[in-house]
Amino acid sequence: MIGELVARGGPRTAAAGLPDPGRLDVWLVRRPRLETAAELLDLSELSDAERRRTASFVRPTDGITYASAHVALRRLLGGYLGLAPQDVPFVREPCPGCAKPHGRPAVAHPDPPLHFSLAHSHGMAVVAVSRTVIGVDVERLPRDETVEVCAPALHPGEQAELAGLDTEDRRAAFGRIWTRKEAYLKALGTGLSRDPAHDYLGADPHRRPDGWTLLDLPSGPRHNAAVAVLGGPPTRVVLRWLPPDALHTGGTVDPEADQHALREGGRETDPHGVDSDGTTTLVPDWGA
Amino acid sequence: MDQTTKTWVFDDLDDLDDPDYEFEHDYAVEVQPPSLSQLAACGPAERTRLIDDYVRAELARVLRVPPDTIDTAGRPMNSLGIGSITGLELQRRMEAVLKVDVNLNMLLRANSAAELVDCLAGQLGPEDDPHKHGGQRDHLVSHDLPSTR
């Protein structure tokens, strides 16, 4: 199935400008259905390595999720930077632990004009874009058996929070802790080379690492997602679905134009545009 | 985000065709690990075969697929479907059985399961095996150290 996904000529994306300082853009991406993915998805802008990776997955749906995430990332960053998606220059920052080039993925620039983070899991991807250092994670809700095996690897404070919960609540709580943790470790640049037991990312915000803001992202009944932001809370968080056709041949992403569309036709969850947790959430009508 | 909007936003995820969202197609795998004494006593080729069978079974259990469908040679862990949480589960299960330290980050970055099998085989031979080493920082697999957690 994935082997049938072929490169096609892709669109160029108009410059849309960088997000304002203090603003966090979060894009949720869903993959196309299995039976239509080969026809719809445009892999022409992916690198050879990305196309090889797409074809390497055992489960075709994982390959489609991976390809969707990377097409979305290139088109989004191309939109922000005014570059064609295939020309977005990715690099790996030095690892904070060993200085080898396997740290945070970044846009190649001596002083990157924006920061981004990408995560994908089982049909869903999340792209976060900001002017400050960020990390994002999304995970499918874990099985109870998995939580049972993995919980002892967490911080003692996190383990204590999980200990008193019933099965369903424990699965969800583990998913929230883990996505906050991986988002934070991605933002740090260490990834999981840092011991998962070292940092507390549990339910109490006051016990979490100083100098960072952790936000749980709405992600539906089957996933958990979170983003870590260096510094204080963003002044504005904009959460949007990527339009499905933005991944297709001929599709484009213009973050600023989409923002105009949001203001005109999107949903704002609160008349003042601010949720109870202090964030702004705007959701367009795509895919409903 | 209020509950109405949350439901509205995510209802459309229900029609995704991924069959394992709620694990309804789970394939239960019973894992029978080799004993440490058995691994230490046999020759290198047999040790590698036993560990390959074991790692294949653990991967199958974590991924919920039949063991004979696991490609141990040609795909990185991520392409098999191992993510950070399932990688952690795999790490902890193997450490508990084999009494070695498995570096989670290197496990997730391994080029193939065969790379993991080779590293485990090097650590689980006789006591005087020159491939054994302690300390997990620089190695995918290292011999179990006291009080690491």
TrEMBL record, chain B:
Keywords carried by this UniProt record: Phosphopantetheine, Phosphoprotein
Matches recorded under SMART domains: PKS_PP
This protein's record includes keyword Phosphoprotein: yes
Pfam families (alphabetical): PP-binding
Carrier domain span: 49-124
Compositional bias annotation for Basic and acidic residues: 128-142
InterPro entries: ACP-like_sf (IPR036736), PKS_PP-bd (IPR020806), PP-bd_ACP (IPR009081)
Region ranges (Disordered): 127-149
PROSITE patterns per the UniProt record, alphabetical: CARRIER (PS50075)
Keyword Amino-acid biosynthesis: no
Protein name, as recorded: Acyl carrier protein
Organism, scientific name: Streptomyces actuosus
